[in-house]
Specification:
24% helix, Quinone Oxidoreductase, Chain A, domain 1, 27% strand, seven-stranded mixed β-sheet, six-stranded parallel β-sheet, homodimer, 2 domains, Rossmann fold, globular, alpha/beta, 335 residues
């Protein structure tokens, strides 16, 4: 059986795009060994973290190799199974890659998705890694509590939009930073932020944040690093918690580490706690988080946008577009 | 009665020294109100934090005002008391300032010192703020445990030398950074560090640290910030804890915040926790910490150096000398 695939063909120096990937097809043997399953992908996830996955810089996962199928989360349908927990017709979430089919052994990050509960694509967003990241950062690391002022960078994105809503549902005041006036409106109208600021058009972002949070920020959900974060640190309140979830505003960390204002004096005098979050550390907390997120979703309390592009061949361009900051909501490829 | 005092006369732009202080004397009325005590200072503490106390930059205490007596920890003898907890002849630790006498009301940071337990001057060092800082940073914030590799900057100083010994007593491996070959020898021979590095003569400090800690640093006790800390961050291990205790390597934070390599990628991918420590937040943990430090001291397990300079008038020069990094051990003024 032919399996259409997208492989990494050239290692990017910075942002990945179509020039770094090639479409190919390979012969797939669907004869399964004991414990294996075969799946057909329905939706692929396009994620900011992919830039790190194709880079040789130290990361939390080994780099995707040249000529290897691009690593990607996906929702797929089981078409054959020699594993007792899975049967043909089941929908599953897993790292099935940019390809039509995948044969693999289930692992702890894989999980079944119930199509009766919500559209299966939500397993790649609000009820998947994005929702889990938003929920676990705020609850397990930042320990948000009622009355906290929470600031979220990339506030209208796949993670940020859920984070804003989770913080509001927990009784926090929410401020979003985002890159266009349309997204500012979306943050306030759809995702319930108390305030949103267009960091691209703000003359003085540090002051603009101070204007809407004169008593300071208690929790900083940082997806960007760089100049955006530099405007937030002077606004952090005593005992604030800052969680580094991504570094989207930094195009490359090598060969020279980019410089910026030192934060040590803020950290010391304001007794900040700055933490790094990587989702795969928190597998044990995921079931409870998904249950809470699923309840909110089914009660209509989570607004969630998807950007669905059809066709495996469009995945590389969709990835490049992601870093332009023009997308709204979770970017998916439908096969 | 005449009270000799040293007041802040000129606000320093950077490091304070004799040119910023004036000797004066004022008439002191020893008639006490109910609840007050009068004390005679025996030892004054000369501390790196004093630079922050005389600066208008935001800090954890309000700045010392012009013509105000210089703020200072001291060990004093009670000469008169209208407070039920204190009697003439008691020795007390408190913020009595650069002066001969002080009339004040006891506060929670003040405490009695037992001259039978240890020389009273130790209340300004190993059994005082330095020891408490060393102990509480390592135990309450960094949560050191047996087998951790702990790196301490300003390793031979008043805080660092105690921190190294506390970490060793808890079963850690200890690496010290210090600024002269004499201090390197002192770190290893007197304070028990496993390794010490002269950061001033090291060609490549980052590599020198890697050579002695190839598996990485688990706990970074950072008294310096700046280029020294920049060499440590790439050496931090997964899940390392970094505590900002001081920023001695940065001469000024204003008007422009100094820049340096961004640390966000280290924080994210290595899941670091970076925290700020200010001792006055930890009053509740002090009695237990002092008890442990006192036991170790009386069992001869804590090596401790004092640099005693006689004469109130020498305090400003002693403070300036502190920032030259040539002192060994805790700097005191004896009255």
């Amino acid at each position: 059986m032919k399996n259409q695939q997208i492989v990494l063909s050239v290692r990017p120096d910075g942002i990945p795009g179509p020039e770094h990937f090639s479409a190919t097809s390979s012969e797939l043997d669907l004869t399964l060994s004991e414990g294996q399953i075969a799946v057909k992908n329905h939706y692929l996830s396009i994620d900011p973290a992919m830039r790190g996955w194709v880079s040789l810089e130290p990361n939390y996962l080994p780099p995707v190799q040249i000529d290897e199928v691009m690593r990607s989360a996906a929702v797929a349908e089981v078409i054959d199974s020699k594993h007792p927990d899975y049967a043909a017709g089941d929908f599953v979430y897993g790292m099935f890659g940019w390809q039509e089919y995948c044969v693999c052994e289930p692992n702890p990050m894989m999980r079944k998705v119930d199509p009766a509960h919500a559209p299966v694509s939500t397993a790649l967003g609000a009820l998947g890694l994005n929702g889990l990241t938003a929920y676990l950062v705020l609850n397990e690391l930042a320990h948000i509590k009622e009355g906290d002022t929470v600031l979220i960078s990339t506030a209208a994105g796949g993670v940020g939009s859920i984070a804003g809503q989770v913080a509001k549902l927990k009784g926090c005041r929410c401020i979003g930073l985002t890159g266009s006036d349309d997204k500012v409106a979306m943050c306030v109208d759809e995702f319930g932020y108390d305030h949103a600021i267009n960091y691209k058009t703000s003359d003085n972002l540090e002051q603009a944040i101070r204007d809407v949070a004169p008593e300071g920020i208690n929790v900083f959900f940082d997806n960007t690093s760089g100049a955006i974060a530099d405007a937030v640190y002077p606004n952090l309140a005593m005992n604030a918690r800052a969680v580094q979830v991504g570094t989207a505003a930094i195009s490359s960390w090598e060969p020279e580490t980019p410089t910026g204002p030192r934060r040590d004096r803020h950290i010391l005098t304001k007794r900040l706690t700055v933490m790094g979050f990587v989702l795969i550390d928190h597998v044990a907390q995921m079931p409870a988080a998904l249950q809470q997120l699923g309840s909110w979703y089914s009660e209509g309390k989570l607004n969630y946008r998807e950007n669905v592009t059809k066709g495996l061949e469009n995945a590389p361009q969709a990835l490049a577009d992601l870093y332009k900051g023009t997308n709204t909501g979770k970017q998916l490829i439908q096969l």
